Amino acid sequence: MGANLLNDQMVFNLLVSIAGFLGLFVFNSILRRLQRLEDDTRSLRDTMPREYVHKDDYRSDIKEIKEILKQISDRLESKADKNLHHGPHLTQRY
After folding, report:
1. 45 with 13, same domain?
2. pTM, 2 dp
């Protein structure tokens, strides 16, 4: 009976050791993946401001461009209206 108890204890110890090894392997694998995710997040945090524009900044810039284009259009229309009403300023030579 003593030898059987020893074998049972050895089998139990072996199973616990294997389970512990597998548990540590999985835990280590998860930690490595988390580290990779943190590295990727850090990299994105560094590159995003250089490569992408905030939506509010984009809208503000587009609004400014539209205002400038409107001013240019208004000036061109004003000049066109002056030319239509007053005619071109040409001097005639005889």
Report:
1. yes
2. 0.49
